[in-house]
């Protein structure tokens, strides 16, 4: 089984193998489950017995018998609801505080014990592009005398980028052509010249692509040399690696120039986390882009109300049928089975589809803002997506069930919206219970099954994949999307905080959701997905802020609810909790935020000798400008699984020998050049299925196997 091994996979091991991003996501899932469990126990022991035995003045039935709807106005039973709000808020405060303290502790470990170049480096942005590289180096040396170890200046050249992209296409075509040769024993050909696939000369694909690749390599090397020496290619940003982590921490907290808009230091992202295209965006351009993007997002939020309102109104066909032009829906009300499906599950399904499409839009506009790292882009996506969830997935949805009947009243008296909000939240409990139930059961099962990627992989394997790279791309699971997964958890966190008192029947499903998420998503993180960068838990402060925002929304809503129940004392207590939320948030961030973000010098001093003795010789990854290292290939690590790289392939010779390269399973790039493969076939054609002896040196031998037109090596 997979459940016990996943559960026993310790936090420390997860931190060492998958980084702080994975650890903070898993720990937040676990702590949210504990909050749900504590609130559920309190609700079962106190609230449900009180609600079941209440007066029930509204004559409710079914699940509503377990809700606050059974309590009469001015009833003393509302005191229990008030105690529930207080207890649930305190439980949330405690666990959020504890989680933030653990985050700060792990951040210090990342900064002071990891041999990561980002711990020794500072990103300097908004350097005037008129500055030459010599001036850049001399200025940095003057600012940080004797502390500069290395400087990687960001550069960009449009022509070089085009050549690199053209080389990738040519290399892929060469790989596919070689794969055809291995599979069919026939050299592939294609036509060049002509017009619209008509006419043209027929050429050997392998020879043509090999020659084109060699020519592009020469052009790229020449262009890289020119770009490296040219000052006009400088994009105004540089990553400065310093001699000590202590100096890096001090530099980040300093002003390099009297004008804070230029030479701006900040924490350097981890090398894989850097978004080099974003580094070329000036400060003015970033401000303008942010204004445009935020304006676009704001308009999108309000226009998105239309499809979300339509999805929610499907749960109330009677109200929808009263709208002019939709009167034909009244006929559907006579078909009980259809009404049950439409009003029960279709709104939830449509809403989930809308949200999935929304993420793609938000990612595109967030990338266009010119942000310096992937983790900051993901943080921006999380913030924008959460805004959508709160506005369209909660506020609009809880009003949409009666929005058509109440539209005139809302226009005539906008002050009635808070009262309407308080009256609508309890009525939408059934929908949100269904939503949490589906997410708890079907959602996590689908996350483990992953039918979408499975179908896509089968299609690619059957019809589209030709080369080893194609097969690897089809098999590659990608990264785990922490930014969207966090938002899904935050939505459930908001719902359980809201309905733990109103409708406690939701709480068991909230517990199931978080504990199933802990197992299923932890399993996917550990065994399925492959992280493409280490963000060092940069998403957590944003998640914490959204948790506090959710509690503020809950307390504002309960002000209206208790006012509607004519219980002013409880409404005042709920109002008091709003400044408590904000003050507590400020206190927690004052205690942990700066320590987690910048570290502390005392910890740096204690660990400096150990890190310094091992760092530069054993650094895990280094900063490199992608355009200037397009032809470089990572080394294949001993013991890793390898594949044939079709980056450099010679035609089969009369002795049955082919010159190939090897690509690592982890990198997918060429790493070993000019390795000879001797085929044990009797003729000089492509070998049949079997094992072959290979060697790069006489004393080193490996095994290569051919299966279905692909070569895989173990070495």
* Proportion in β-strands: 5-15%
Number of strands: 12
Summarize model confidence as the mean pLDDT.
78
State the strand order across the main sheet.
Answer: 7-8-9-10-11-12
What radius of gyration results from the CA coordinates?
30 Å
Global morphology? globular
End-to-end Cα distance: 31 Å
Summarize the structure.
The protein is built from 24 helices and twelve strands.
SSE map:
Layout: H1 3-8, H2 11-52, H3 78-113, E1 121-125, H4 133-143, E2 148-155, H5 158-184, E3 189-192, E4 201-204, H6 205-229, E5 234-242, H7 245-252, E6 264-267, H8 276-279, H9 283-303, H10 305-313, H11 317-321, H12 336-344, H13 346-367, H14 374-400, H15 403-412, H16 417-427, H17 429-449, H18 451-464, H19 468-475, H20 482-502, H21 507-527, H22 540-564, H23 568-598, H24 601-618, E7 641-645, E8 657-664, E9 670-678, E10 691-697, E11 700-707, E12 710-714
Antiparallel strand pairs: 1-5, 1-6, 2-5, 3-4, 7-8, 7-12, 8-9, 9-10, 10-11, 11-12
Q: Would you kindly provide a written description of the structure presented here, covering whatever features stand out?
A:
By secondary structure, the protein is an alpha+beta fold. The protein is built from 24 helices and twelve strands. The strands form three sheets. Strands 7-8-9-10-11-12 form a six-stranded antiparallel β-barrel. A four-stranded antiparallel beta sheet has the order 2-5-1-6. Strand 3 (189-192) and strand 4 form a beta hairpin. Helix 2 (11-52) runs parallel beside helix 20 (482-502), helix 2 packs antiparallel against helix 21 and helix 10 (305-313) crosses helix 14 (374-400). The model is unreliable at 634-715 (pLDDT under 50).
């Amino acid at each position: 089984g997979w459940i016990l091994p996943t559960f026993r996979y310790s936090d420390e091991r997860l931190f060492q193998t998958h980084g702080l991003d994975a650890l903070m996501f898993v720990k937040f899932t676990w702590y949210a489950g504990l909050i749900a469990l504590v609130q559920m126990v309190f609700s079962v022991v106190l609230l449900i017995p009180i609600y079941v035995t209440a007066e029930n003045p509204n004559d409710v039935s079914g699940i509503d018998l377990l809700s606050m709807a059974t309590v009469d106005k001015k009833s003393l039973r509302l005191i229990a609801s008030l105690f529930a709000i207080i207890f649930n808020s305190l439980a949330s405060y405690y666990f959020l505080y504890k989680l933030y303290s653990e985050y700060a502790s792990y951040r210090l470990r990342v900064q002071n014990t990891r041999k990561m170049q980002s711990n020794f480096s500072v990103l300097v942005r908004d350097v005037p592009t008129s500055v030459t590289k010599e001036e850049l180096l001399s200025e940095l040396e003057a600012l940080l005398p004797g502390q500069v170890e290395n400087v990687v200046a960001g550069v960009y050249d449009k022509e070089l980028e085009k050549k690199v992209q053209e080389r990738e296409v040519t290399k892929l075509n060469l790989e596919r052509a070689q794969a055809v040769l291995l599979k069919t024993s026939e050299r592939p050909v294609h036509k060049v010249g002509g017009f619209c696939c008509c006419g043209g000369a027929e050429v050997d694909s392998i020879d043509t692509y090999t020659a084109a690749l060699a020519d592009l390599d020469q052009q790229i090397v020449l262009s890289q040399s020119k770009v490296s020496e040219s000052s006009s290619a400088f994009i105004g940003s540089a990553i400065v690696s310093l001699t000590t982590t202590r100096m890096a921490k001090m530099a980040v907290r300093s002003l390099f120039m009297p004008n804070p808009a230029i030479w701006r230091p900040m924490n350097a992202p981890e090398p894989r986390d850097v978004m080099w295209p974003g580094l070329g965006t000036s400060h003015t351009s970033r401000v303008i882009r942010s204004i445009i993007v935020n304006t676009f997002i704001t308009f999108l939020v309000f226009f998105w109300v239309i499809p979300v309102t339509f999805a929610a109104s499907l749960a109330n066909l009677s109200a929808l049928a009263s709208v002019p032009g939709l009167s034909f829906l009244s006929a559907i009300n006579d078909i009980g089975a259809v009404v049950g499906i439409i009003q029960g599950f279709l709104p939830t399904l449509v809403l989930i589809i809308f949200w999935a499409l929304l993420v793609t839009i938000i990612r595109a506009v967030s990338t266009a803002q010119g942000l310096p790292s992937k983790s900051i882009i993901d943080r921006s996506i999380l913030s924008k997506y959460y805004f959508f969830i709160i506005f369209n997935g909660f506020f609009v949805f809880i009003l949409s069930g009666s929005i058509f009947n109440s539209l005139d009243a809302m226009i005539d008296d906008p002050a009635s919206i808070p009262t309407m909000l308080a009256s609508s939240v309890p009525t939408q409990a059934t929908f949100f219970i269904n939503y949490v139930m589906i997410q708890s059961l079907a959602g996590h099962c689908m996350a483990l099954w992953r039918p979408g990627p499975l179908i896509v992989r089968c299609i690619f394997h059957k019809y589209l994949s030709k080369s080893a790279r194609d097969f690897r791309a089809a098999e590659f699971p990608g990264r785990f999307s922490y930014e969207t997964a966090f938002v899904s958890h935050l939505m459930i966190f908001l719902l359980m905080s809201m309905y733990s008192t109103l409708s406690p029947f939701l709480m068991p499903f909230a517990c199931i959701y978080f504990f199933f998420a802990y197992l299923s998503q932890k399993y996917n993180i550990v065994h399925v997905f492959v992280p493409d960068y280490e963000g060092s838990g940069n998403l957590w402060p944003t998640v914490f802020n959204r948790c506090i925002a959710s509690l503020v929304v809950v307390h504002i809503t309960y002000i209206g609810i208790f006012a509607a129940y004519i219980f002013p004392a409880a409404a005042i207590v709920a109002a008091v909790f709003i400044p408590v939320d904000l003050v507590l948030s400020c206190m927690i961030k004052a205690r942990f935020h700066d320590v987690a973000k910048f570290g502390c010098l005392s910890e740096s001093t204690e660990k400096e000798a150990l890190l310094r003795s091992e760092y530069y010789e054993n650094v895990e990854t280094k900063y490199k400008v992608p355009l200037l290292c397009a032809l470089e290939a990572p080394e294949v690590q001993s013991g890793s699984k390898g594949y044939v790289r079709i980056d450099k392939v010679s035609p089969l010779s009369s002795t049955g020998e082919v010159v190939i390269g090897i690509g690592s399973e982890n990198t997918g790039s060429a790493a070993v050049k000019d390795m000879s493969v001797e085929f044990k076939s009797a003729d000089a054609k492509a070998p049949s299925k079997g094992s072959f002896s290979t060697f790069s040196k006489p004393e080193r031998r490996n095994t290569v196997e051919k299966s279905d037109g692909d070569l895989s090596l173990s070495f």
